[in-house]
Every structure is written in structure tokens, then in C-alpha cells.
Design a protein that fits this description.
This protein is α/β, with parallel strands linked by helices and 250 residues long. Helix content is 37%, strand content 14%. The protein has a domain at 2-172. The chain contains 9 helices and 7 strands; from the N terminus they run βααβααβαααβββααβ. Strands 1-2-3-4 form a 4-stranded parallel β-sheet. A hairpin with a 4-residue loop joins strand 5 and strand 6 (186-193). The chain is globular and about 45 Å long.
Length: 250
């Protein structure tokens, strides 16, 4: 999982608003990163990070209203478009791309929107970008009743969180891991937490504990895994198989 962080840059020349208010800078340390800096930072990543399947995962621990998340999704969707012309494969790969992006922010306005000065939050921005891509590349419009849109809404609701990563309780933030199985018509979902991921990455030792404490404190319970057929994108057609690795349809 790649973790990206906001950088306090100024970009008055491009007319982008980098600060909402002096109070938010003081209280939240909130300064937005201009789009050209976001793109410059993402350009430093290896090409493999933009593969279509399995998609590389990204976690933005201070995502704001989603500038990094939007740029990451845009690059992933560009690869999906170039990967295959088959509409169903594009839809599935696009949902997998969306599901590989995670974000956390301390501000409700940044995540949920709904404020007069900030009506659209990170979740809705991601959904809007995905819907525009769907209309542009597949040629159909999606709405709230469409299965594709409902699935995407479930994903952003469970991937983009209101929380504080600077405090220890941020390690309790839930993280959903997705295993897309198109042939079986289902997605296997493993419920994790950020703390559990940290422990796994640290070889089973809690990184917040020192010396002997690490051996006396029990690890969290095993992650709960469920298979949820309701998340699959489309009914499977008999005799039709889609290889997510190369986009071939047989």
C-alpha cells in the first residue's frame, strides 16, 4: 500500500484555492496541494503502480477533499480505458480501481461536503469522476439506481473515512480489503483496521509498543472475511469469462 501525504504548497499563479480560511489552517493544519504538484509527485511513482489488475492500493492519511485521490483515480481509469474495449471488463476494472483507493480526513466537510462553503466532499468527487468516465468511455449515464453507481457508492462510503490519523485511535479506522472474482460473480471482502495492517507489515509486532511489551500484548483478533454476492457488478453470463489480467473476453 502506497501512502501519499499533502504538501503545503502555494499556487496563486494557477488560481487554485490552497487555503479555505486562516482558522482551518490554525485548527486543522489544512493546506491544499495544487494539482500540478500532485501530478509531479505521482510522476515519481513507478509505472507498475498503475497496473489494472491487481490494482496497487493507495492510502491518503490526510486526504482533504480528495485532490490526491482524484488524481490517482484518474490515472487508474486511463489505464483501464487503454487496457480493454469491452464495456463489462471496463466497468469491473474501474470498480476495482476505485476500491484500491483509501482516504482519511479529520474534517466532515472534506469527506461529506454539505457545507455552504464546501458542498462537495471527497466521496462525491470520486463518484462524480467515475460517473463522468463511465459516460465518456462506455457511452451510458449512471444514476443512483444503477448497479454500477450503487456499488461505487458502497465502496467510497467504506474506503473514505472521517477520522484522525495523528492519534492512536486512528488505528481503529476500518479498512476493507477486496478480492475481485469475476468468474464466480462475487467479491470477497476482508474487514481489517489500519492498526492490524501496521502489525502485519511489522512482522506481527505492534509498532507502538516497545521491547517486552510487544511480546505480552495480544494481537488483534483475526480479520473477519465475508463473501458478499450483492457487491458483484453484473450477472455472470454462461460460458463468458473475463481475464482481469489482460482484458481478454472469451
Amino acid at each position: 500500500m502506497t501512502i501519499v501525504t499533502n504538501q503545503p504548497e502555494a499556487d496563486a499563479a494557477n488560481g487554485q484555492r490552497l487555503v479555505k480560511s486562516a482558522e482551518r489552517v490554525r485548527d486543522l493544519g489544512e493546506v491544499f496541494t495544487p494539482s500540478h504538484i500532485v501530478n509531479d509527485m505521482l510522476n515519481l511513482l513507478p509505472d507498475e503502480m498503475w497496473r489494472t489488475h491487481p490494482p496497487a492500493t493507495f492510502l491518503e492519511p490526510a486526504c482533504g477533499d480528495g485532490n490526491f485521490l482524484i488524481a490517482i483515480l484518474d490515472r487508474k481509469l486511463q489505464r483501464v480505458t487503454a487496457h480493454t474495449d469491452d464495456p463489462q471488463t471496463r466497468q469491473i476494472l474501474a470498480l476495482a480501481a476505485l476500491a484500491s483507493i483509501y482516504g482519511v480526513d479529520i474534517s466532515p466537510e472534506n469527506i461529506l461536503g454539505g457545507h455552504p462553503d464546501h458542498p462537495i466532499g471527497a466521496r462525491d468527487r470520486l463518484l462524480s469522476q467515475l460517473s463522468q468516465w463511465h459516460h465518456r468511455t462506455i457511452g451510458t449515464t449512471v444514476n443512483a439506481r444503477n448497479r454500477f453507481h450503487r456499488t461505487a457508492t458502497w465502496i467510497v462510503t467504506h474506503n473514505i473515512h472521517l477520522g484522525d490519523m495523528l492519534h492512536n485511535n486512528g488505528r481503529d479506522i476500518p479498512i476493507v480489503d477486496y478480492d475481485w472474482d469475476v468468474d464466480a460473480g462475487r467479491v470477497t471482502i476482508t474487514w481489517l483496521t489500519i492498526g492490524l495492517i501496521e502489525i502485519h507489515a511489522n512482522g506481527g509486532t505492534d509498532p507502538d509498543l516497545l521491547f517486552d511489551d510487544a511480546f505480552t500484548t495480544p494481537l488483534p483478533e483475526p480479520a473477519h472475511t465475508t463473501v458478499w454476492d450483492g457487491l458483484h457488478l453484473l450477472p455472470q453470463h454462461p460460458g463468458r469469462q473475463i481475464d482481469l489480467r489482460d482484458g481478454n473476453v472469451t
